[in-house]
Design goal:
With 225 residues, this protein is of the alpha/beta class. It has helices at residues 9-21, 52-64, 85-96, 107-113, 119-134, 158-161, 176-179, and strands at 25-27, 41-48, 70-73, 100-105, 140-143, 171-172, 183-186, 206-210. Bound molecules: zinc ion (2 copies). One zinc ion is lined by residues 47, 49, 104, 144-145.
């Protein structure tokens, strides 16, 4: 039984192990369709905000526990370039470990900043870039949370106007099915607003858990960033 919560990999592993012991299927978005009606499950989601190397550390840890998750990748990030040699290799390794790569999109923000751009076209280009660089099909998307001073809409509202099927997306992380119909918890801003993930295990049968790799570490907060 877990006693003390922390942001280190020891606690993260303990949370996942406890979930496995309690019978949860821990899955990426792309496997939601294989879940049976009575199965307890956790959709494990990671948004890569600033550093791909941290995400790789988490992806390896999960792999050692036999767990796969969805890693959402940005294409407009100022702090990483997905075609840079080391980042490219890290993303390939994340894929080879069985994880899913999804698009962490910024289509509304981008369309606001660059005048006269169409958000749908921006979205499709973002998706195409990720698919082309990694030679994959992207089926899952999650809105990135920053919004510009110029824009009043959050990227999340993109799918209020465009059906996801129209842009080749099967799973939108902010669909009601994954945020309201099941329990959704997040470690945004380095804090669990509704308690650490371990506190929900055994109480909620179905969860989406958003874990940002940047807040979690093996030895200290400043490693591999
Ligand atoms: Zn905990
Ligand atoms: Zn984000």
């Amino acid at each position: 039984m877990i006693k003390t919560c922390s942001w280190n990999y020891v606690h993260y592993s303990a949370c996942l192990l406890q979930a496995q012991e309690q019978g949860y299927a821990i899955i990426p978005f792309q496997e939601v369709g294989s879940i049976t009606e009575k199965q307890q499950f956790i959709i494990l989601r990671h948004d890569i905000e600033r550093s791909i190397s941290r995400a790789l550390g988490m992806a390896r840890l999960e792999n050692s526990l036999g767990i796969r998750a969805t890693y959402f990748v940005r294409v407009h990030a100022a702090s990483y370039n997905i075609f840079e040699y080391n980042n490219y290799q890290a993303l390939q390794e994340i894929l080879s470990l069985g994880h899913e790569i999804g698009l962490h999109f910024e289509a509304l923000d981008f369309a606001h900043i660059i005048e006269k751009e169409n958000p749908t076209e921006v979205f499709l280009r973002e998706k195409k870039v990720l698919e082309t660089i990694l030679k994959i099909s992207v089926r899952s998307a999650a809105a990135h949370g920053e919004h510009t001073s110029a824009g009043s809409q959050h990227n999340r509202s993109f799918f209020e106007n465009i059906p996801k099927e129209e842009v080749g997306i099967w799973y939108n992380a902010y669909d009601a099915a994954f945020t309201r119909e099941i329990k959704y918890i997040s470690d945004s801003f380095g804090m669990w607003r509704e308690n650490c993930m371990c506190k929900h295990l055994g109480k909620e049968p179905r969860l989406q858990i958003l874990v940002h790799p940047c807040w979690w570490f093996k030895d200290n907060l400043f490693e591999g960033s």
